[in-house]
C-alpha cells in the first residue's frame, strides 16, 4: 500500500502494438475511478516514470501489475523479472502477454531470417550498405546499446510466474473493469484464473447456425456474406467455435470471422489444435483429394490456426538447430523443450 492507503498499480508495455494501453483508456470516465482507487506508480506509456523508480521499490511493494506484451528482447525479459519481483500480483494483460499473439508468429523464423528480410530484402527497404541493428555500436560520443533480440517470442508466463490472465486483442473495457473491481474488493479468483467467460464466441454470436458442410473457404473480398447466417456456414473462416467468449462477437457482427484473440476455453492445452479439430469436423469431403482441394482455399493455415497462440502452444516454434555456431530455424522435427531462461 502507498502512504495514502491506496494499493499500488503498475502498467507496462512490452512486445505488443500498444492497443492494450488504449484499452485501459477505453474505460472512459472510469479511468478516473482507477486513479482515485489506486496509486499508479509505474505507467511509462502515459506518465513520466523511469525504470530506476521501480528498482528503488521494495520487493512486493507494488500490489498489482498489468503487464501487456510478449517477451522478445532482453529488455522485455528484464522488465518482466523486475516487475514480477516488485509485484504481489502479476496479470498477463491481453493476448500478447497471455499467448504471444501475432508477435509469436515470428517463431516460424529466426532472428537472422527476420533481419535479412526487414533490413535488406523487403520491397520497401533502401539499405545499400546492408546495415542491421547491433547490440553495441561505437560512436565518438561513446557506446550505443540496444536490447538483445531473441530468436524465440515467449508469453509472459514462460518467463515469470503469473497469477491471472486477462485475454483479448485488446481486452474489452468491461473485463478490465471487472478485474479492477475484483482487486479493489479483495474477491480475487484462484491463481491461474482467466478473467472472463468460459463459453465460446458462438454462444455470444446472434447469427443463425445450421448444419455445417463446408466445401470451400472464401476470403472476405471474395464474398458478400448474408448478415444473419453463421459466417462459417457460408465458408468464411471463423475461429469462434473454439475461442473463449468475452468480446461480444464483435468481429462476426461486422461480417468478419473471429480470429481467436480471446484464446482457448478452460482445459484446452493447445488452442490451435482445438481449432484445427473443430474446423476439420465441418469439412464436407470424403477423399483425401477433396480435403486437399478444400484446404487449398484456406491460405496460410498456420496463420489462421495459430494467429494468436503459437508461442504458447505445444509447438512453440519451428525447431532450432546450430549451424556454424548460430541457432537457426530448421524444419520442425518435434516439440522443442526450450529453457525459458534462454533467449534462444
Description:
With 344 residues, the protein is α/β, with parallel strands linked by helices. It has three domains: 8-102 and 152-185, NADH:ubiquinone oxidoreductase-like, 20kDa subunit (Rossmann fold, 3-Layer(aba) Sandwich), CATH 3.40.50.700; 107-150, no CATH class; 201-298, no CATH class. The chain is built from twelve helices and eleven strands. It has helices spanning 19-25, 30-37, 51-55, 74-86, 95-99, 111-121, 173-185, 201-204, 250-253, 271-280, 288-295, 301-305; strands at residues 8-13, 39-42, 62-68, 71-73, 87-93, 136-139, 142-145, 149-154, 164-166, 320-323, 326-329. The chain has a five-stranded parallel β-sheet with strand order 2-1-3-5-9, sandwiched between helices. Strands 4-8 form a two-stranded antiparallel ribbon. Strands 6-7 form a two-stranded antiparallel ribbon. A hairpin with a 2-residue loop joins β6 (136-139) and β7 (142-145). The longest helix is centred in the N-terminal third of the chain and has 13 residues, at 74-86. 38% of the residues are buried.
Number of strands: 11
Large-scale geometry: globular
Oligomer: single chain
Instruction: Kindly report the average pLDDT value.
Output: 89
Any guess at the CATH architecture of the largest domain?
A: 3-Layer(aba) Sandwich
Strand proportion, as a percent range, falls in 15-25%
CATH fold descriptor of the largest domain: Rossmann fold
DSSP helix fraction: 25-40%
Task: Give me the side-by-side strand order of the main sheet.
Answer: 2-1-3-5-9
Low-confidence stretches: 331-341
The gyration radius over C-alpha positions equals 22 Å
Major sheet details: 5 strands, parallel
Distance between the termini: 38 Å
How many distinct folded domains? 3
Text of the CATH class of the largest domain: Alpha Beta
Amino acid at each position: 500500500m502507498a502512504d495514502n492507503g491506496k494499493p499500488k498499480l503498475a502498467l507496462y508495455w512490452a512486445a505488443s502494438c500498444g492497443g492494450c494501453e488504449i484499452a485501459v483508456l477505453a474505460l472512459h470516465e472510469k479511468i478516473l475511478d482507477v486513479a482515485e482507487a489506486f496509486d499508479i506508480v509505474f505507467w511509462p506509456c502515459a506518465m513520466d516514470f523511469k525504470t530506476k523508480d521501480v528498482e528503488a521499490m521494495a520487493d512486493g511493494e507494488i500490489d498489482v501489475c498489468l503487464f501487456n506484451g510478449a517477451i522478445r528482447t532482453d529488455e522485455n525479459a528484464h522488465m518482466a523479472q523486475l516487475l514480477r519481483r516488485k509485484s504481489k500480483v502479476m496479470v498477463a494483460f491481453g493476448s500478447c502477454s497471455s499467448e504471444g499473439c501475432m508477435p509469436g508468429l515470428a517463431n516460424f523464423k529466426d532472428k537472422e531470417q527476420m533481419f535479412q528480410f526487414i533490413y535488406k530484402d523487403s520491397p520497401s527497404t533502401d539499405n545499400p550498405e546492408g546495415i542491421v541493428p547491433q547490440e553495441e555500436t561505437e560512436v565518438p560520443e561513446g557506446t550505443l546499446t540496444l536490447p538483445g533480440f531473441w530468436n524465440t517470442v515467449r508469453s509472459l508466463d514462460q518467463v515469470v510466474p503469473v497469477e491471472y490472465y486477462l485475454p483479448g486483442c485488446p481486452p474489452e473495457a468491461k473485463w478490465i473493469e471487472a478485474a479492477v473491481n475484483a482487486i479493489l474488493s479483495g474477491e480475487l479468483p484462484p491463481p491461474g484464473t482467466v478473467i472472463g467467460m468460459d463459453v465460446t464466441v458462438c454462444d455470444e454470436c446472434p447469427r443463425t447456425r445450421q448444419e455445417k458442410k463446408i466445401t470451400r473457404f472464401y476470403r472476405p473480398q471474395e464474398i458478400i456474406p448474408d448478415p444473419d447466417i453463421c459466417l462459417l456456414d457460408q465458408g468464411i473462416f471463423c475461429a469462434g467455435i473454439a475461442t473463449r467468449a468475452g468480446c461480444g462477437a464483435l468481429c462476426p457482427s461486422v461480417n468478419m470471422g473471429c480470429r481467436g484473440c480471446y484464446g482457448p476455453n478452460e482445459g484446452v492445452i493447445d488452442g490451435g489444435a482445438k481449432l484445427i479439430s473443430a474446423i476439420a469436423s465441418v469439412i464436407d469431403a470424403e477423399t483425401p483429394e477433396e480435403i486437399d482441394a478444400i484446404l487449398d482455399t484456406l491460405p496460410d493455415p498456420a496463420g489462421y490456426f495459430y494467429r494468436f497462440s503459437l508461442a504458447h502452444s505445444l509447438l512453440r516454434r519451428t525447431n532450432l538447430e546450430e549451424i556454424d555456431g548460430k541457432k537457426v530455424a530448421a524444419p520442425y522435427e518435434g516439440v522443442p523443450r526450450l529453457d525459458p531462461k534462454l533467449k534462444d
